[in-house]
Amino acid sequence: MPYELHYWPTIQGRGEFVRLALEAAGADYVDVARGPASRGQGVAAMMHYLDSPQVVHPPFAPPFLVDGKAVVGQTAAILLYLGPRLGLVAKNELQRLWTHQLQLTIADAVMEAHDTHHPISTGLYYEDQKEEAVRRAKAFREERIPKFFAWFDSVLARNPRGSACLVGARLSYADLSLFQLVAGLLYAFPLATGRALQQAPLVAGLHARVAQHRRVAPYLASERRIPFNEEGIFRRYPELAG
After folding, report:
1. Residue ranges with strand state E in 70-114
2. Residue 107 has what pLDDT?
3. Residue 242 has pLDDT above 90, yes or no
4. Helix 93-115 × helix 75-86 angle, to 10°
5. Contacts of 69 (CB under 8 A, 6+ apart)
6. Domain that holds residue 34
7. Is residue 200 part of a domain?
8. Of 18, 6, 77, which Cα lies nearest the Cα of 43?
């Protein structure tokens, strides 16, 4: 049975971190909401898990993964579940815990990136909070992007197995997620992110290597990879880009 990934069909968003893991591992999966209703897919199929009282453990929001009887929500929890099944995490318990910690830190950065364009409320349009977004984005560009990149660079430098990967000597889901974080920030804040990468060469190198991965590269060039757009987490607004 293929894994069933449930996420909004028109954006990369948080679902893209899961897609990258599935693609890199060559896993059999269905991107349910992007499929036709005639096959029991589409947004309605996704909403069933969110709204139906028959679902005992309903996810709060997409993304979530369905694998048989297992319904797993939250990006970091999905990757924690998939990691050992896809060979994208070490067998050692401490290394698994460290990989999960890295993923949670990436999630923090993703949330801060989102809040640059919605600093007051997700219930308000961007245009209703633009003044506050300009201030928030400036602080994020100048302070937070460099701080996150410097920390991840130090993690790569301290890896006893070499600086090619965050954990051990093999690709993990944390490497894929750091690639996606950098890719999103390059889209939303190209100049500031470029400057930060100059000060974090190991992060820049990891980003380049993942982009060339034998399964990731074809995925990035395919129609399965939804382009960045101004409905997702990473948005390019000229007044915020700096």
Report:
1. 70-73
2. 98
3. no
4. 140
5. none
6. 3-86
7. yes
8. 6
Work out the average pLDDT over 16-28.
98
Alpha-carbon distance values, 137 to 124, 146, 148, 152 (Å): 17, 13, 15, 21
pTM over 0.90: yes
Mention every residue, 6+ apart, whose C-beta is less than 8 A from residue 111: none
Distant-in-sequence, close-in-space partners of 10: CB < 8 Å, separation ≥ 6: 226, 229, 231
Which tokens sit at 140? 């994020």
Whole-number Å distance between alpha carbons of 197 and 186: 10
Q: Round to whole Å and give the CA distance between 133 and 129.
A: 6
Same domain assignment for residues 103 and 207? yes
- pLDDT reading at 215 higher than 90: yes
- Which one, of 101, 102, 100, 130, lies nearest residue 118 by Cα? 130
Q: Looking at the structure, tell me whether residues 81 and 99 fall in a common domain.
A: no
Q: Mean of the per-residue pLDDT values for the chain?
A: 97
Q: How far apart are the first and last CA of the chain?
A: 46
Tokens read off for 41? 């897919």
Is residue 208 domain-resident? yes
pLDDT (average), residues 214-221: 98
The pair of structure tokens assigned to 123 is 């219930």
Q: What is the pLDDT of residue 116?
A: 97
The pair of structure tokens assigned to 51 is: 């709204």
- Partners of 31 in the β-ladder: 5
Q: Provide the number of structural domains found in the chain.
A: 2
In a domain, 116, yes or no: yes
Instruction: Look at the block and give the residue holding tokens 């034998």.
Output: 214
Specify whether the CB–CB gap between 79 and 176 falls below 8 A: no
